[in-house]
What we know:
2 domains, four-stranded antiparallel sheet, 4 strands, elongated
Amino acid sequence: MDIKKEAIEIKEDKVLVSINPLIYPLEVIYSVAYIFIDKTYVLLEGDIEKEIIVELRLKKTESCERKQELEKIGREFLNELLNYAFYKKQSEKNGLIRQSILQRALAVNIQENPQSEIDEIGEDEIEDFEDIENYIDEVIEDDIEDSEDLVLPWEDESDKLNNDEKSCVEKKIGFESFE
């Protein structure tokens, strides 16, 4: 197996980061690439089995600083790969612990509430759900009826009124004339 000394290759206006997919899973690479889309254009290429190449192009920078900025971006990308890979491993390792804690919490809740109480709660929730459904249906019907009454926007209608009619309408609504 060939070991690369440099995983970063800087070209004119881009940096290429070479990644071994056996070390960094594709989902980790996606997560890290997502972080960099604010300041760079990101392109993922390569063979998922052998090597993934991430191309990063800066969105904006001075040309004299470009090479240093590209190298910095490439190295930051590699650091974030390690960060996300570590996080993923820790999440996988702690997954069983989290699941166990959740199961215990649910088991305690079930023991505190006998089955008859749980059944009663279910019946009440069904009635509440039906009330909510009826309310939503009423609101939708009201919106449909209201939308049928609207023919012209306020501006169009008020433009047709002469000045006396406008001030009369504005007083009715509670606005004073600005003319």
